[in-house]
Amino acid sequence: MTGRRAIPAPIRVGEHLVHGLPVDAQTRCVHWATELDVLAILFPCCDRWYPCHDCHAADADHEAATWPASDGAREALLCGVCGSTSTIDAYRATSRCGGCGRAFNPSCARHHHLYFD
Ligand SMILES: [Zn+2]
Ligand SMILES: [Zn+2]
Ligand SMILES: [Zn+2]
Q1: CA of 62, nearest ligand number
Q2: What is the span of the domain harbouring residue 82?
Q3: Bridge partner residues of 24 (DSSP)
Q4: Could you tell me the distance, in angstroms and rounded to a whole number, from the CA of residue 87 to the centre of ligand 2?
Q5: Helix %, strand %, coil % of the chain (to 5)
Q6: What's the gap in Å between 101 CA and the centre of ligand 3?
Q7: What separation in Å is there between the alpha carbon of 78 and the centre of ligand 3?
Q8: How many domains does the chain have?
């Protein structure tokens, strides 16, 4: 654990730890911090939650992998408001949390290619 740039300790959201550069307890990060940015994503390459792709790049020592289309049933989205997870298929269909109904940032759809095949 030496020689790496300083990364803050992960935050706990529900039962999960969120890594990278989060700035509050609802998974906002230094890159995305509006009222709507309360979503973390599980990365298949390392099985870790990050607020965004840039947080993964800042923390991980490898290229980010994307979820194959066949993994749509995986619980890979984490709501920072209630701590519940949603499947990739459900998230892509509604852009809302299946637990509390919170609407996620619609602009995230522009970046789906960074996370999903
Ligand atoms: Zn990774
Ligand atoms: Zn980030
Ligand atoms: Zn929620």
Answers
A1: 1
A2: 11-115
A3: none
A4: 21
A5: 25, 25, 55
A6: 6
A7: 8
A8: 1
